[in-house]
Automatic annotation (TrEMBL):
It comes from the Eukaryota. It comes from Diphasiastrum complanatum. This is Uncharacterized protein.
Length: 301
């Protein structure tokens, strides 16, 4: 286990690995602390803060169908040491607040995204004025040891045309959270924390099914690998390993009928041994996810 709630342990040209779990963590080892204190802090520069609404209105004028949905905001993590029992594996608690897509567009995806950063090294403080919705990504390995990659459509809002792992976001809607504009949502709730933690694992399976067309019955229980943050726009993503019990050829057949196939233009399969090398050659490929995958299998050997 590497990392802390502050400094990033590993960096490459495009991504920081905020947390790397080479052995992988199961559903029972990952919990969530959902609090208002992990929400975004407004920037003290009034003009910069007002730019969020302006950018959103400009985007709406071009794409009226845009929807400002709620998202979970990444606010750090802490490790749980198995209640002092050295025989127990370490557990992870992820800190989550609430944000929305509009604020994401106006901060992380703004051309002025760097102005929202605080000039400190500590990660959570540095990004306290950005929306930083926690995305998810799946490193899906097929029965013939191929890793699935998607080329994004040119019509999507974030990194159109780039090569990515299947993924998206865990959704607050799935656990009954619509928004918290009034600040009235009760978050000191162990039951709600449990539902959100479950949604992290359920959500990544849902994304793989929607984007590749592979039925959930052919997918394994996800294993949590870690969290990376993109250097450009400081976008955080939680990564999972998922085993697919179909061959890559069979997956291609399912892709033709994927519910969200419109979000991508091509499905590719790369040998698991070639993934780190191939990721460096592909524009926009999530090298942070490839690095987490490599760490897991290096540790397992």
């Amino acid at each position: 286990m590497e990392g802390s709630s502050g400094k990033a342990p590993l960096v490459d040209a495009a991504f920081q690995l905020l947390l790397a779990c080479p052995a992988g963590l199961s559903r029972s080892q990952v919990s969530v602390d959902f609090k208002n204190s992990y929400d975004r802090e407004p920037h003290p520069d009034k003009k910069l803060e007002e730019s969020i609404e302006h950018i959103w209105n400009c985007r709406l004028a071009v794409s009226p169908s845009l929807f400002n949905g709620s998202k979970f905001r990444y606010g750090g993590f802490h490790m749980i040491d198995g209640e002092g029992d050295l025989e127990k594996p370490q557990n992870l608690c992820i800190h989550l607040g609430l944000t929305d897509y509009k604020t994401f567009v106006g901060t992380n995806l703004s051309h002025e995204w760097e102005h929202f950063l605080v000039p400190v090294e500590e990660d959570v403080t540095r990004c306290r004025h950005t929306a930083s919705p926690l995305g998810n990504g799946a490193i899906v390995e097929t029965a013939d040891s191929q890793i699935l990659l998607l080329q994004r459509s040119v019509d999507v809002g974030e990194f159109p045309g780039h090569v990515v792992f299947p993924g998206g976001h865990s959704e607050p809607d799935e656990v009954g959270i619509k928004s918290d504009a009034s600040g009235s949502l009760s978050r000191m709730n162990n039951e709600l924390n449990g539902k959100i933690a479950a949604e992290m694992f359920d959500g990544i399976i849902r994304e793989v099914v929607e984007e590749t067309g592979v039925p959930a019955t052919y997918l394994s229980e996800p294993i949590f690998l870690g969290i990376s943050r993109r250097v450009i726009n400081v976008r955080p993503t939680a990564f999972f390993y998922v085993r697919c019990y179909l061959s890559s050829e069979a997956v291609f057949d399912h892709y033709n009928h994927a519910e969200h196939a419109f979000e991508s233009t091509k499905l590719s399969a790369v040998s698991r041994d070639d993934l780190p090398h191939e990721a460096k050659k592909m524009p926009g490929c999530h090298q942070g996810g490839a690095a987490l995958y490599t760490l897991m299998f290096t540790s397992a050997k």
